[in-house]
Amino acid sequence: MSNRNYNVFFNTHTVSGIVISVVLYIIFFAGAFALFKDEIGIWEEGKKSTYTNRKDIDYDKLLTTLNKDYDLSGRDVQIDLGKHEDKIYVYLLASQDSTATEKSKTAQFFSLDIHTEERKEYHEYYGIGEFLYRLHFFHQIPVIGIYLAGFVAIFFLFAIITGVIVHWKKIVSNFYAFNPKIALKRVWTDAHTALGIIGLPFQFIFAVTGAYFCLSVLVLLPANFLYNGDQTKLLEDIRPERKTYVWKEKTKEKLPLFNDFIQKSDTFWNEFEFTSAFIRNYGGTNMKYVLQGELKDSERFVGLGRVIFDMETGFIKADKNPEELNYIEDTQRALTRLHFGDFGGVFMKILYFVLALITCFVILSGVLIWVEARNKKSMTLSQRLFTANIGHIYLSICLSMLPVTAISFLFIKLFGARFTNSQSAIYYFYFILWILMILFMGFKRDNYKTNKISLLLGGVTGILIPIVNGIVSKQWIWTSFQEHQYDILTIDMLWLSIGIISLLAYTKINEKVKAQSSFTKNPIDYKAAQLQLQEEEKLHQSKEQTIDKNFIAMRTKIIILWLTMVIGFIIHHVYGIANVYFQESLVLEGADGEIPGWAHQWRIILEGMAFLFAILTVEFAQKWFKWTSLIWAVLLGLFNIYHWITAMIYEMSNVSEILILFLMVVANIFLIKEILYWKSNKNVAIK
C-alpha cells in the first residue's frame, strides 16, 4: 500500500472513530447490560420466580377477566409469552367494532401475572434493565434517537473496515508483542489492535445488525418501490403474524376455547416452544387465533413456526413450518438472534457481555492513542488544549457510566418499590447523577484521577450490590443457588465479578503508569494557559502580518445563510396553499376566522428569529453574540433535521417538500460551520 493510501485510511479511521467514540461507548456499555434485561427485571423484584410451561397457562380464564375489564369485542389482542417468569405482556388495540363500548376504544399495554392476575402498566414495571436496553439505542431521545444509533452503527462499520486495513500488517506482531510495561502510547496502540482483532467478528455483527434494526425504515425504502407503495402488503410479508383483518360483525356463536387451540397446536412439531399469541377481531365472525414460536436451540438455530385458527372455516392450519426456511422471516430472526445473543443460554450472554466490554476498552484506547499522540511540543498550545479537553470530556462521560450504573442498581433495589412511576424515578436519578459525575470528573482535568475514581466507585458499589440484594430481598448468593433462582444469581455474580475486577484494576494503576503519559512528560499549565495563549496569538500575528480581508465577507456569508433559512421557512409555509388547489376543504378544522396564537409563535420562532439574527450580525461581533448565534443555529438545525426525518417517515409522497427540508438542513449545517469559524477567528478585532 502506498503511503498516500495508508494516510488516507489512517486519517479516515481516526476521524470516524473519534467522532462516534462517545456515542458508540454508550451503545456498547448499555447494550452489555441490556443482554440481561429479563434477568435484571427478576432481580429487581427480588421474589422467587417460577416458570409455567406456556401451553399449561389457563388463557381462557385470563381472557374472560380481561374481557370483563376492558371489553375485548372488536379488539386485536397481542400477547408476549415471555421466557423467564410467570408474567406475560398484553397489548390491546382499540376496537374496530363501531357498536363497542367506550372503554374498548382505548389501547392498553400492561404486564399480567398468570397466577394472581396482577396487572402493571409500562411505567410501573419499568426497571433499570429496560432503561439500559432503551439507552443502548437512545430511545430516550424522541424520534431521532434510534436513527442516531443507526448512523453511528454505519460509521462504526466504516471504522472497523479502515482499522483492519490500517493495522493489517501489524495485527499478528502487535498481538504477540503486547507489553504493558512499555511507553503508554505503545501500550494503548498494541491493546487497541490486539483486543480489536479479538472482538472483530462480534463488532462486525453488531455494526451490521445494529444498522439494520435502527435504520430499518431506510432498508424498507427500496422494498416499498417493489410493492408499488403498498406498505400494508409489504409489512404483511415481513411480519405475517401481525397481519390484521377488517372487522365484519359480532358473532352470535360461542367463542372457541383458546386453551383447546394451544393444546392442538402443541401436537404439530416436537421440541417447539410458543413465544407469542395473537387474537384478531376478538368476538367477531372472522376472528382468528395465531400462535407463534420456534424450535429449541438444540434443534435449530432459526426455526420459526406459526399456527392459525380461522373461526370462519373452523380449521387449524400450520401457516409456517419451523423446519422449512422462509427467506424474509428467517433472515430477520437470524439477525435478531445474532444481535441479542438469545441462543446458547446464559453462557452465550456472558460471552457477549465480555466482548461488549472489550469493545468499550477498544473505543477508549483509540481515544487515548489520539490524545497521547497529539500532545507534542511541536503543536501549538491551543491545539494541545483542544485535544486535552476532548480527552477529559470523552473519558468523564464514558468512565462515569460504570459507577452511575452500579449506584442506580443500588437505588432501585433500596427505593424502587416506593415509586408508582418507576420510569420517571430512574430517568431523573440516572441522568442527574450522570451529569454530576461528568461535571465533577471533567473539571478535574486529570484522566488518571478520572480512571481511578470510576474504578474505585464502580468496584465498591459493584461488590455492595449482591450484599444489599441479600439484605433487602433475602436472596443471598448461596440462597439463590440453593433455590435455583439462577436469574437473580446471574446478576449478583455479574456485579460481584465487575466489582472485584474493577478494584484489582484500581490497584494496578499507580503513579508509575501516570509517569509514562505524555501529559506528565509535557504537561499543560492550565492556570497560566490563558496568558500563554495570548502570547502565542501575538507571536502568530507578528509572523503573519495579514490584513483582515475575510471578516466582512464571512459575516456577509452568515447573514446570507440566516436569510436563506427565512426564505426556506416561507417556502415551506407556502406548501399549505397546495390544499387550495388539490383538496376540497379550504379551511382547517376548528378555524374561526382568526389566525391562532400558536401560528404567530411558530412564525416568530422560525422566520422571525432567523431574520433578527441576520440583522444583528450586521452590527454585533461580540463573543456573547457569537455564542448566542451558535446556540440558536444548533437548536434550529436539530429542529430542521427532526422535521426532515418525520417528513421522510410520514409524508413520503410529498417529494418536493422533503427536498426543501433537506436543503434547509444543508444550509443550517453551513450556517453552523461559518459561525464556528467566526467565533474561533482570533485575528478579527471586535467592533
UniProtKB/TrEMBL annotation:
It comes from the Bacteria. It comes from Tenacibaculum jejuense. The keyword Plastid does not apply. The chain crosses the membrane at residues 12-36, 144-166, 204-227, 350-371, 392-412, 424-443, 455-476, 488-506, 559-582, 602-618, 630-652, 658-678. PANTHER family: BLL7967 PROTEIN, IRON-REGULATED INNER MEMBRANE PROTEIN-RELATED. Coiled coil: none annotated. InterPro entries: PepSY-ass_TM (IPR005625). Keywords: Membrane, Transmembrane, Transmembrane helix. This is PepSY-associated TM helix domain protein.
